[in-house]
Amino acid sequence: MFVDFDFVKNSSIELIELIKEERDVEVCKSKILDLWRSLDTLEEDSSVLLVDRSFDSTDQSLLYLLVHHLVENDCLDVVEQFQKEYSSDYLNRLVYDHKLYRTILKDIKNNNFLSLQAFIDQNSGESYILKYYIAIYKFLTCSNQKDSLAILFNEVSLYSKNMANVSKKYLKHLIFKDNIEESISYIKMVLENLFVREYSKLKLTNEYDFLKDLFLVGSSAYKQLQGITVTNIDEDDNILPVEIKLPKGCNYHSLFVCPVLKVLCGEDNKPVLLSCNHVISLNAANVLLKFGNSDTFKCPYCPEMCSSKSILILEL
Fold first, then answer.
1. InterPro entries given for it (predicted)?
2. 3-state per-residue secondary structure call for the chain
3. If we measure between CA atoms, which residue out of 205, 184, 183 comes closest to residue 195?
4. Whole-number Cα distances in Å, 93 to 127, 181, 203
5. Can you tell me the distance from the alpha carbon of 310 to that of 300, in angstroms, rounded to the nearest whole number?
């Protein structure tokens, strides 16, 4: 979840000023509490959703991975052929969303913000912070001082209530043009990152191409499992017959095996993130808690003490 801390801070300051003036004191107090409670999600959410998409079937998962991989690698001719042979509303929407994503990012890099502006207009309720940074970009790149002032008063000022502290950093460029290119480059980077975040949230896309890694790891695992002669393996037992070694350059398996208990994680034993950022299985954490003091235990991979309250379940 994206949290606009500047908005929370500035809104809190305004409410505190109203309280000092003894105007709607109880209402203002309630609003401040609600603002800051919105940031505290630790007790409410004990899990981390790694990819915010709920796939209806394996086929949809595969389609998503294929389209993402093909578009990211500029194989648009393959995508078009794919659409002809396997046409469906879901596939067509995937292709359109991925192409639009690539187009807008490319336009931003080329200093063309028309497609980004169109995206913002279509999703006006989601992207006020994007609108603000576009206004700042226009202000910084305007060569005419009179026009710069017009942009400042007519566009940037619309967000002064929540973004005043950010705007102050760039007002100096009305007079001093030193390091303005550095500021422009930074604003472009902010726009790219904000767009990626907003688009991923709205379209449930993911920037990373998982298919290549999954294919490499799966191919390597298949070769290692192919030669196994172990018989009578219990299908209900989540223990792999051998430890699968990762190919060079890969950092994770498509399936997570607990490094402590050496068992495959699943719905009944999910991976968990410790406060030190090491990952083990939920069952392993429960075992370690039994041997720890009260509700804390030492991480098996570093000296840090971990609390049961700080454990986060990792879910896909």
1. Fyv10_fam
2. CCCCHHHHHHHHHHHHHHHHCCCCHHHHHHHHHHHHHCCCCCCCCCEEECCCCCCCCHHHHHHHHHHHHHHHCCCHHHHHHHHHHCCCHHHHHHHHHHHHHHHHHHHHHCCCCHHHHHHHHHCCCCCHHHHHHHHHHHHHHCCCHHHHHHHHHHCHHHHHHHHHHHHHHHHHHHCCCCCHHHHHHHHHHHHHHHHHHHHHHHHCCCCCCHHHHHHHHHHHHHHHHHCCCCCCCCCCCCCCCCCCCCCCCCCCCCCCECCCCCCECECCECEEECCCCCEEEHHHHHHHHHHCECCEEECCCCCCEEEHHHCEEEEC
3. 205
4. 22, 38, 10
5. 16
d(CA 268, CA 73): 37
- Would you state the structure tokens that stand for residue 261, as one six-digit string? 């208990």
Nearest alpha-carbon partner for 111 in 88, 138, 92: 138
First to last CA, the chain: 16
* CA distance linking residue 24 with residue 105, whole number of Å: 45
Taking 80 as the threshold, does the pLDDT of residue 313 lie above it?
Answer: yes
Shortest CA distance to 173 belongs to which of 153, 143, 203, 199?
A: 143
How big is the chain by its Cα radius of gyration, in Å?
A: 25
| Residue type present at position 258 | C
| pLDDT per position as a tens digit, 2-35 | 445 567 677 777 888 888 787 788 888 788 777 7
The 10s digit of each residue's pLDDT in 243-292 is 777 777 776 656 788 888 888 888 788 889 888 888 999 899 888 888 76
Q: In angstroms, rounded to a whole number, what is the distance separating the alpha carbons of residues 271 and 285?
A: 10
| Residues 297/300/306/307 CA torsion (nearest 10 deg) | -50
